[in-house]
Design brief:
This protein is α/β, with parallel strands linked by helices and about 400 residues long. The protein has 3 domains: about 5-50 and about 145-320, Rossmann fold (3-Layer(aba) Sandwich); about 50-140, Rossmann fold (3-Layer(aba) Sandwich), CATH 3.40.50; about 325-400, 2-Layer Sandwich (Alpha-Beta Plaits). The chain is about 45% helix and about 20% strand. The chain is built from 15 helices and 14 strands. The protein has a 6-stranded mixed sheet, with helices on both faces. Strands 5-4-3-6 form a 4-stranded parallel sheet, with helices on both faces. Strand 4 (about 95-100), helix 5 (about 105-110) and strand 5 form a beta-alpha-beta unit. The longest helix has 17 residues, at about 150-165. The radius of gyration is 24 Å and the shape is globular.
Length: about 400
């Protein structure tokens, strides 16, 4: 089992290589929660994720044993990039196996760090199996979480948190396979025994919750989640005993909460977090975890690798889910000034019109009527209610989309 001494050795190796990421205080989240809230910004780490720490330390520890075949890893994203970049810095050949559905952006990123990318399998489990076969051809397999060196590398985040915030009361950490939370919990609890460690999972794949309930790692089903980086069906055999011993609680976040947290981080702190990195804030905002008033809380924002083509969709859905966008349609008399009057009413109640679709030729429209669909930027749900009441009192039959 990983001890504090091995995490300190990892910190020495990573000195000047990995970024000591900022620990940033948030006035807004502190006021919302009633406790001082800090963000540990691992989205600013090399390759955009904490995974670089564990990958680099692992490779440095086994460097003398790596032959001409180099190393192999399996991942749909962050671990692949972490291994690829760490191997590139050391001049080690790297192969990363990614599922066939892995995003083009993440494939390009792994290749840009010098890795050979192999697309294999419909699932990450199939990719892992193929990586194990490649291991038999003279490569060394680098596990994404169930490895003592990887856990020690991730634990250096905990050292940095306690060094900068000695009075930390609680640390909220995303859990997938458990490598990150095991490393952070070991470091923080060794230096500040009274501190609480709370793990956060996506409700769509709550493998650590199930493992704790049953007393052993078990495989669970996984639904689609914005937090795909922690959608790991079974926690590790090495990480689970650490979770059992050192993690005080494990909570889950729903998809709507994760989307809202991503949006809040971007709007309030200009922090781009992937779904997995936003789950600690999702748990805090959703009241799955209650702060002790006045006691410092750290949210580990574990990564920021959001596919660019999905970012707009995620943010747009987040705006809908938090009452920041209203989409509705009405039928108007097809006469001059009817549309202008509708727009005047919406604008007069501080609705910012984003999109208009004006249909005068619809097959199902009665003669003399047109249908207008509006997408309007709003402040919150009470503002939406005010707009809808105003339109109803003006005689408009509104259909909310």
């Amino acid at each position: 089992m990983v001890q504090l001494e091995s995490i300190k050795r990892a910190a020495e190796v990573l000195e000047g290589v990995a970024i000591k990421t900022p620990l940033v205080y948030s006035t807004y989240f502190s006021e919302e929660s009633g406790a001082p809230v800090y963000l540990k910004l691992e989205n600013l780490q090399k390759t955009g994720s904490f995974k670089f720490r564990g990958a680099y330390y692992k490779l440095s520890h086994i460097r003398d044993r790596i032959g001409g075949g180099g190393v192999v890893a399996a991942s749909a994203g962050n671990h692949a990039q972490g291994v690829a970049h760490a191997a590139h810095l050391m001049g080690i050949p790297a192969t990363v196996v990614m599922p066939e559905w892995a995003s083009i952006g993440k494939q390009v990123a792994a290749r840009s760090y010098g890795a050979q990318v192999v697309l294999h399998g419909k699932s990450l489990t199939e990719s892992l199996s193929h990586a194990r076969r490649l291991e038999g051809e003279g490569r060394i397999f680098i596990h994404p979480f169930d490895d003592d060196d990887v856990i020690a590398g991730q634990g250096t985040i905990g050292l940095e948190i306690v060094s900068e915030l000695p009075g930390v009361d609680t640390v909220l950490v995303p859990i997938g396979g458990g490598g990150l939370v095991a490393g952070i919990a070991t470091a923080v609890k060794s230096l500040r025994e009274k501190a609480k460690i709370v793990g956060v999972q996506a409700a769509a794949c709550a493998s650590a919750v199930s493992a704790r309930r049953l007393g052993k790692p078990v495989s669970v089903s996984a639904g689609k989640s914005l937090a795909d980086g922690i959608s790991v069906r079974q926690v590790g055999k090495l990480t689970f005993p650490v979770i059992e011993r050192l993690v005080d609680d494990i909570v889950t976040a729903e998809e709507e909460q994760i989307a809202a947290a991503m949006l809040k981080l971007l709007e309030r702190k200009k922090v781009l977090a992937e779904g997995a990195g936003a789950v600690p804030l999702a748990a805090l905002m959703g009241n799955q975890f209650h702060c002790r008033p006045g006691q410092p809380v750290v949210l580990v924002v574990s990564g920021g690798n959001v596919d660019s083509h999905l970012l707009g969709k995620i943010l747009h859905q987040g705006l809908f889910r938090t009452g920041r966008i209203l989409r509705f349609s009405v039928e108007l008399e097809d006469v001059p000034g009817a549309l202008a009057e509708l727009l005047r009413l919406v604008a007069g109640h501080q609705g910012n019109i984003l999109h208009i679709h004006h249909d005068r030729m619809g097959r199902h429209l009665p003669v003399g009527l047109s249908r207008v669909e509006l997408e309007v930027e709003t402040r919150d749900y009470p503002h939406i209610e005010q707009l809808l009441n105003m339109l109803a009192s003006g005689g408009y039959d509104v259909e909310v989309r």
